[in-house]
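mind reviewing this stuff:

——
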Amino acid sequence: MSIESYILGLQKNPSPGKIGKIVLGGLELLAGVYEKGVVKKYEKAGRNARRMPIPVISVGNITAGGTGKTPCILKLAEMLHKKGHHPAILSRGYKSGLEKVGGVVSDGRSLRISQKLAGDEPYMMALKIPDVPVLVGRNRIISAEKAIKLGADILLLDDGFQYWDMKRDLDIVLIDCTNPFGYGYSLPRGLLREPMEALRRAHTFILTKSEQTDVSVKTDIKKNLFRLAPQALILESFHSPSLLVPFNKWKKGIKEDCLS
């Protein structure tokens, strides 16, 4: 068992043993140090955050792990494009070949770089919505300037809730109904990337995997969100399969075997 798996198991365990409690106590101290660092970083970045000349929409979350950000940002880009806008997606490209220096994955007409350089998710997004530019890079201010030169009139920040160097006009935060608040602790004691109070910045919440929890659980989640951000809109989404495609056909881009 890896250290990561062991810690995750402890985070989930409501009744850890003696050793587990000692480990969790140490992790809680580290979480306090982590929170102070995050708050300090946010305050510093907030003072110097750049306002872009076009609207900025962020899609993010407050917990580590997947909450459905990629499908959400793809849907947003598709909706905006259909309404006549020219959105561009700005992704960090975590652990990609261009994360540090940045680059254009797609200019909205064709792919410009390989999957290895782009990273799996940005490359997949560029394939999924070929009419929308996709850019990667840790410095999304530079990516934004490139996107504007490509004709973008709206910027979509992928995983942008903790990217504080750029002001945004709309902060959409996804909440996983199966683990909404990361066991109630910041990393590494829990899965929160910021203290819960950070949710006050949100303009819209989308509850994901809502079909996997009952009404009472969702009601409690909504009460917590309303307490922190009474101004925010709360929506629900659910996951369901839409296609069943044999692997050999998927490789060829054939997707006609729809589920009924």
Q: What stands out?
A: The mean pLDDT is 92. Residues 98 and 211 are 37 Å apart (CA to CA). The chain has eight helices and eight strands. Helices lie at 3-12, 18-48, 69-82, 115-118, 120-128, 140-149, 215-228, 247-251.
